[in-house]
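**Sequence with structure:**
===
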Amino acid sequence: MSEGRPGQIPFPPGERRREPRQSLQLPVRVKAFGDDGQAWQERTLSEDTSAGGLGFQLQGKVSRGQVLFLELPLPRLLRQYDPDAPVYGVYAIVRDVTRLAPATRVGVMFFGKTPPPAFERNPTARFLLPSDLPPAGASPPAAARPPAAADPAPADDGPGRRQAARFELFFNFRLQQVDEWGLVLREELTVAENLGLGGVRVRTTLACAKGEILNLRELGGGFESRVEVRNAWLGPDGVRRLNLKFLDGRTAEPLLGKG
């Protein structure tokens, strides 16, 4: 999530990413937990970098969906928060793993200043996107199943209870506050913590009220929708959350059906 990013990077012709990668070498300290639950860390150099993630090589073993904690001197223009901190600390989710001898090429998606909610309970958990899910009819991985009933979010999403299951599937979005003519007043990068056909839960730094209408755009993808704020609250980690309902007949089917 971002607050007051100082500028935008121009997109080169033909660039499909909303947050294009730059060839930029930066020192990176990677901290992670192995499958045995033991913490490890490694120093490396980034190979390409953007506001949404970066790529680097590691000697340590990682897998898709794994959570890493990164420390690096990310340029201010690419940061989502802490613009003046000498070292940028960010949780990231492994999205691509390419085995190279003797190292592994890793691509990660930035998650945010705090880890996914389930990480503190199980730091070896894997967090997957819809394209990582098994074929229809197969059982989804544990990290992609609907969250347990002990969700810290308010249970009521407006009139009645939520009917569609939410899934812990993480997407990067751009959240925009707009005026009545559609002019963007404020915007930020944010991460969806769970997603259902009719709505999504996101982290935010924006001051949004229940009933407010916002724009939501997927980074690096074609999904976008007007959304209504159904609930806004402060989580136990001190981060503000919004429950958003898709409007204009839009659903998350294009996202849930990817891959």
In short: The two ends are 26 Å apart (CA to CA). The chain has two domains: 27-127, 142-148+163-256. The CA atoms of residues 114 and 238 lie 10 Å apart. The first helix runs from residue 253 to 256.
